Amino acid sequence: MRIEVFNRSKFRDGSDPGDDVPLVVPGLVYGVFDGATDPRGTRVDGIAAGRLAALAAASAMAALAQEAKVSGMPGREIIEHLASALRRASDGLDLFIPPSTTAAIALDCGEDWRLLLLGDSGLRINATEAFRSEKLIDTVATIARVAVFKLLSSRFGLGDEVEMSARATILLGFDQAVERGLLSVAEANEIIEATARAAGLAPQIELVDRFLSGGIQIQHQFGNSRGNPLCFETLNGTDSALTELLDFTRPKSEVSSIELYSDGYAALPDAPTAAAWEAAFARAEAEDFHRIGPFATVKGSTEAEFFDDRTVVIVATSSNI
């Protein structure tokens, strides 16, 4: 068996570890936990809130994997166990935004692999079969942020200042962008309306307006919010319907490789190796540095930062790969 782990902070100078946490307990469990970056930059004892969530969930999963009963536990119970650990980690901190994280998990269950996925981290089997949940709320944020970036770059050209202004707009909201003079009221309304149409949410324009006006800093209000069109399931200590939880098994005889990865990787490689993942990342970075084209997302890269943290954990069971 070959195990590879690659974890890279979004900060190019390595000044901060970022919010991704890989988990490797050989023979028991492997995972990637991608903590949600707090738009307000909240830290607890020097640890970013997103990383706090990822660390709490990863630690709880490592402990749970050592219990014989885990292979037969319902997926809901596993996730609720991790959510409880996250609640304990954040109790009493009085944080405005609840720390949250995704979870991509591979449990070694003897003759089988058990695979669980919650949130927008990814899972790939045999370098061909990929699973990853896209969030509608991220689609809305991406469409709006790209529109803001293009508007600002038409005035000021491409550069880090434009990227940071576009980030501030989508992270802290259009209302603040108008107050700061980045957008006029008319420009903000036009982008919000166009975003709702493009996302297929024209009938819910008021909901889209509420989200974009407040920005990603209020996105937690939609987490595990049942019945809301912008609802997304996440590990943040609150109860979830878990309708989006992926939980299935595969016989080990049918699996030559498992790759667990965070959404900091915008493109998938052909081969299940860390080198191949990094090569695919480099190509995407060169092709769409600002993340406004084929790899559009809620943030772009700058000279100081990659667009996101990135992590991949690879378990290869065949000697031929």
Structural class: alpha+beta
Q: How many structural domains?
A: 2
Annotation, overall tally of beta strands: 12
CATH-derived topology of the largest domain:
Phosphatase 2c, domain 1
- Overall shape: it is globular
**Helix content, binned percent:** 25-40%
- What is the level 1 CATH name of the largest domain? Alpha Beta
**N-to-C SSE series?**
EEEEEHHEEEEHHHHHEEHE
Give the terminus-to-terminus CA distance. Answer: 10 Å
User: What amount of the residues lies in strands?
Assistant: 15-25%
Strand order of the largest sheet: 1-12-11-8-9
What is the overall number of helices? 8
CATH architecture of the largest domain: 4-Layer Sandwich
Mean pLDDT: 95
Radius of gyration: 20 Å
Which blocks of ≥5 consecutive residues have pLDDT under 50?
A: none
